[in-house]
Write a structure and sequence with these properties.
This is NADP-dependent oxidoreductase. The protein is α/β, with parallel strands linked by helices and about 300 residues long. The chain is built from nine helices and 17 strands. The protein folds into two domains: about 160 residues, Medium-chain alcohol dehydrogenases, catalytic domain (Quinone Oxidoreductase, Chain A, domain 1), CATH 3.90.180; about 120 residues, Rossmann fold (3-Layer(aba) Sandwich), CATH 3.40.50.720. Helix 3 packs across helix 4 and helix 6 runs parallel beside helix 7.
Amino acid sequence: MKAITYAEYGDPSVLTLSDVPEPKVGPGEVLIRVKSASVNPVDWKIVAGYLDPMMNVELPAIPGWDVSGVVEAVGFDTPEFEVGDEVIAYARKDWVKGGTYAELVTAPARTVAKKPKALDWHQAAGLPLAGLTAYQLLTRLGTKSGDTVLVHAAAGGVGILAVQIAKSFGARVIGTASEKNHDFLRELGAEPVTYGDGLAERVRELAPEGVDVVADFVGGVRDTTKAVLADGGRHGSIVEAEVQEDGGLYLWVRPNPDDLAALADLADAGKLTVPVADVFPLEQTADAFTTSAGGHVRGKVIISVSS
């Protein structure tokens, strides 16, 4: 099968379109024929070697954790799925080796859910990692109806989904973004504020009593978070572990089929969509990495593997 591989750490130039053996399907796994995959910052960070101190990587490896596709085969004792199911997965395994930038990928059943019918293949591929990140941070912070939630980097790949998820919970959402993205955030139901100097004051103008929940998806905003948090408020970050020093939650997203199914339900209910910023064919994955690493992308960068 065709796959993107890398045999050494480095910039996107180390990525190669290769012919590799089809993966074996173990017990409790599904084999997915990939329709689309998506690029997350963690993907190019792993290829660059930034996560080597904390993750086992077996080279040569195929990158990618997000996928949408069709079940091609199931391993022993995998009653959750059958051949022909349309699925999505945050297909993170216990080591980095066989990722989703390939024609076929195996995924543990614990990482897989049925694809939402309301999303196309590209949108569906962009949902798992970013959607789970937003969903798990908001739920672990106890976000509920009536809360006022501040989302840092609300127009980013995770922030866009966090805004919609918090709104689906019945929360009021204030989102930080550059002014060019303010109208877009209003369309999602958020109240936009410009990031930068004076942010705390601008948030306090909208929420004089402070905000109940702060979800940080950018980092470098601890002082602002503390300045706008109401008494008894909760806050967390996916970027800075140091928030724990201030009583906050540091979250590293985990595969969870129930959470992924909940996101799919929100999409099918019309409460959650996944904006797609750009789509690249498999052989142009290096260009997709470069686009993602450049930042300032509103929506997901997608790898189209098969039609």
